[in-house]
Amino acid sequence: MSSGPDAPSGARIAERARTVVPGGVNSGQRSIPGLTDLVVTGTGGARFRTADGREFTDFHAAFGPPLLGHNDPEVARAAAEAGARIGHMGVGVTEGEVQLAEQLVELIPSVEKVLLTSTGSEATFHALRVSRAATGRRLVVKFQGCYHGWHDSVSLNVISAPEKVGSHDPISTGILPEVLDATLVLPFNDSEAVRRAFAEHGHDIAAVIVEPVPHNVGALLPHQEFLTTLREETTRAGSVLVFDEVITGFRHDLGGWQSICGVTPDLTTLGKAIANGAPVGAIGGRADLMDLFSTRPGAPAFFAGTYNGHPSVVAAALATLRKLREEPVHAHVYRLGNRVRAELTALYARLGVPAVVTGHGSVFVSYFMPGPETPRTYDDLLANDASLFVGYRRKLLDHGLFELPLNLKRSHISYAHTDADVDRLLEGTEAAVKAVLAEGGARDLENASTMGGAVN
Prior knowledge:
Layout: H1 10-20, E1 40-44, E2 47-50, E3 55-58, H2 73-85, H3 95-107, E4 113-117, H4 120-135, E5 139-143, H5 177-181, E6 183-186, H6 191-201, E7 205-210, H7 224-237, E8 240-244, H8 257-261, E9 267-270, E10 281-285, H9 287-290, H10 311-326, H11 329-351, E11 356-360, E12 363-367, H12 378-381, H13 386-396, E13 401-402, E14 411-412, H14 419-439
Parallel strand pairs: 3-13, 5-6, 5-7, 7-8, 8-9
Antiparallel strand pairs: 1-2, 2-3, 4-10, 9-10, 11-12, 12-14
Helix pairs in contact: 2-10, 3-10, 6-7, 11-14, 13-14
């Protein structure tokens, strides 16, 4: 990294970006209030560096993919070796693709056949398309607080304002009303609402799609009875049950959340931790559903993607799965995650700050609200003190710690994090929370919540 008076600063590079890139970033959740000049120049393990010469311990982890830590050497080596050996042809198949598919079929309970995509959004898009193709039905059910990607059928009701809960709350303009009308939005963890929806609309429900743990609003842990109800109602109605495990898959267990809860969906979508940050997703499930895709000549549901199964990406996924299977990755991140959640809970109690610390495995999040009950629905999260939530994360930057300073966003532990990192996190959090409380909360919360309703 260059240094000295002529070195490119974050502000100069960011200004160049804003000249040629709308907003200066390539995803709508990367322009963060107070961090609009953030330019990342290097990553490694549990750290990242910026153009201004600062280094942070990273508990954001790119929304979750690098479970092993940034730039894991074995994964990086495997991807580089594959790239030196074979380029992307876009025709036929490589042996690596076959090996990866075989492992996914072996590991994920619901997966009998699998197709690779480049992103999780593509995977969920195809899951809904093939569900409609299989059933000939129109309606899709999703849940308030769940995010399933950028496509129109599911781009609604994620982080909604209180007055928008209970009605359609699209996160983008430009969506046809008739597309939104074909999506039913229900409250998460509400089995009775599911039963009512199926009693009224079951004959026309093509699919139910759900994050088994809604991590896009932090961590709403599911009631077992709720997931069981989804399975029972979709089976009874002949609808397709889709588990969106783009976040939970591999990060929480090699078999995904479905192996933890024992509920097997019809289709599963995967992404993020599957390749430790390389751009890959997957859709897999029952063979009769997967055989409807046009990768099988003559099948009716079109499926394509120029970069699907890119050799370097596949090699990264294979190396990631190899390490997850052979090394105590989950034992390590679960131990640190349990420690973080327990010690943060004690910290807030000592400070007299109403808070509920929740999560699972390597994921943790502190909601600033009265306890002790763990929030289970999006309505519960409306009590979160956003000014304290966002404010303490902004103050963490002063201590070289990075948790994404956006409302309701979860944090992650990787295999590269250590107990010393957790010590620093606890010390920094105490100082940051005290500082925000002394100031009376964070100011300037505009744009500090993403995936909210669209502004017309």
